[in-house]
Amino acid sequence: TDYGVGNPMNVKVEALTSVKTQLPYEYYVLPFCHKGINLKAQDALNLGEVLRGTRIYETPYKFSMSTDSTCKILCRAVYDTQELQAFALMIEEEYRVNLLLDNLPIAMPVYMSEETSEGKSTGKTTKLYQTGYPVGHAPGQEDVLPQTLKNGAKKDKSIYLFNHLRFTILYNDFHGSDKRRIVGFEVEPLSIKHTYDNMVDWDECVNELSGGRCKLNTCDAHQPVSTQSVPLVLDPQSKSQEVIWTYDVVFKSSPIRWSTRWDTYLEAADDAQVHWFSILNSFTIVLFLSGIVAMIMINTLKKDFQRYERGDVLEEGSEETGWKLVHGDVFRPPAFAGWLSVLVGTGIQLAVSVVILIVFACMGFLSPANRGALMQAMLFLFVFMGTVGGYTSSRFFRMFKFTRWRSNALWTAMLFPGIVFAIFFVLNMFIWGQKSSGAVPFGTLFALLVMWLGISVPLVLLGAFFGFRVQPIEHPVRINSIPRTIPDQPFYVSPAVTLIVGGILPFGAVFVEVFYVLSSIWLHQFYYLFGFLLLVLVILFLTCCEVALVLTYLQLCSEDYNWWWRSFFTSGSCAFYIFFYSLYYAQSKLQMARAVATMMYVSYMFITSFTFFLITGSLGFLSCFVFIRIIYAAIKID
């Protein structure tokens, strides 16, 4: 938005958020000043924002472009014990206020001194942003101490309320003074025990400068608040306590261009070197595995083919060994083959959705300025990719000689969304019980149900209809009528070993990126390194496919032809590592203050890991399926 000098500016407020509880609350849950504000009027939100618990309201702060104000009175309030205790609880749980100006979130600037590789200071400082500002300060929160509380003596057991905000608004005027654009919205919160002598009509002093009828002793229009002032100590046991809310506004011209105004926010989460190191490390794993796969393909298979083709070399009575022996059983349908086709269909549907989503994000369609866009896009993509899931599932279903394609399609459409919806619904009840704005309204839940049952299910059925009409997949070799007995297996192809090995390599390739993604979600940081994420995703997919190929080949060489489910679980097992790593991450990085927060974390991480399991399992299975078809099609069977 372009502002002329003196133009009024609207400050809005998002939800109160906390890393400790992960439960967002509406701003006006606490009795902040709201004179002249319609508390029933909310900004229209997209689906992603509603699911995140965002609620946007107007605030009583009044700014005029390029008009500095010192010590403006917002309101005076007298709080009873219940209200004081509500403030104290929010402060102890480290809740932060997220104001918005021209769609930019408010931030507290943090200056970091740059260091050389030897650890010496270069004398330069980098400005980083912490989004939002704390409601107050409680004992043990030394990292959020603002200026007024840094005088060592204040490190006592008191709870302080930040009732004075010093706003700094950065703007550029490259397009003329009547077209100023906002490129930064900074705040310094202060705790000040305001005093006054004469009787003041507080209703008339709303958004007025301190002075005349509205005179405060602690500051006025010419004398800003001193950092040596007495801070406002909150007494949660008091019958009533007076709080006077005030603010300053300073406008500063800035060289930052409007198009790059988000860079300071994003730099806070930027650590490109670590990402490159992680990708090189992952790439090494992929090269190593590719080498093994190439060796199997070229050396071993070539020798095997030559040996099998020179059938005359085999002496009478000597037996063939290895994977050729199981040619009559390798395509025998496994137990629960219908369920396998359902899981593969769902996994491919999810994989296609995730790849398209990240490609769109790389192209800049889902910028952090567009709140909730990522979640909304993911939901819509999953719903519309239903045809892909239905088609894949029914192709395998028909290959296994089943005929009830409608029930297969319905299971494909219902299984994964049904599990997710059930967990989400139960969790929503608990969040609702906490009176958090993170509880999704029933109207939105109904809209999600309509998307699922009204759009996704018909699309899956449509995909399955076409998949079932296509010529079925033919096997390159005949299946024997009597199943062959499987000899004793060496330990290295036992299910336990293949699950452990199959999961650890893909997890090793992605765990650094998993750390950054978890931090952006649970520590409320911005994540925008989608290019890195796409690279890591490609590396993950390659690793899963190659690990599954190698382990399935070893299994067939040991004359064990039950590879169908094993190949799915082998590559899918990296999801177990991701789930356990997320629990370790929560234990080491997050301090959950409420049981509901822990429950929410575990539930969401279970859903994420289950998604991972279906995607990686399906890709591993498909790569093995293609590989086995190729090698058995190439040999002569008498």
Per DSSP, what share of the residues sits in E-state strands of 2 or more residues? 15-25%
Number of helices: 14
Query: Mean pLDDT score, rounded?
Result: 88
Helix/strand order, N-terminal first: EHEEHEEEEEEEEEEEEEHHHHHHHHHHHH
Low-confidence stretches: 312-319
Tell the overall outline.
elongated
Q: Spatial order of the strands in the main sheet?
A: 13-12-16-3-14
Number of E-type strands: 16
Q: Largest sheet at a glance?
A: 5 strands, mixed
End-to-end gap: 77 Å
- Helix fraction by DSSP (H/I, runs of at least 4): 40-55%
Gyration radius, in Å: 31 Å
User: What is the SS-derived class?
Assistant: alpha+beta
Which key terms come to mind for this protein?
four-stranded antiparallel beta sheet, alpha+beta, five-stranded mixed beta sheet, single chain
Structure summary:
It contains 14 helices and 16 strands. It is an alpha+beta fold and 638 residues long. The protein is elongated, with a radius of gyration of 31 Å.
Give the SSE layout.
Elements (H helix, E strand, L loop, with lengths): L7 E6 L33 H6 L4 E8 L4 E12 H12 L3 E2 L1 E3 L2 E2 L1 E9 L5 E11 L1 E2 L1 E2 L21 E3 L2 E9 L8 E10 L17 E2 L23 E2 L5 E14 L9 H5 L4 H38 L27 H26 L10 H12 L1 H14 L5 H29 L8 H28 L25 H28 L7 H28 L6 H9 L1 H16 L5 H39 L5
Parallel strand pairs: 12-16
Antiparallel strand pairs: 1-2, 1-5, 3-14, 3-16, 4-9, 5-6, 7-8, 10-11, 11-15, 12-13
Structure description:
- By secondary structure, the protein is of the alpha+beta class.
- It is built from 14 helices and 16 strands.
- The strands form five sheets. The protein has a five-stranded mixed β-sheet with strand order 13-12-16-3-14. A four-stranded antiparallel β-sheet has the order 2-1-5-6, with no helix packed on it. Strands 10-11-15 form a three-stranded antiparallel β-sheet, covered by helices on one side.
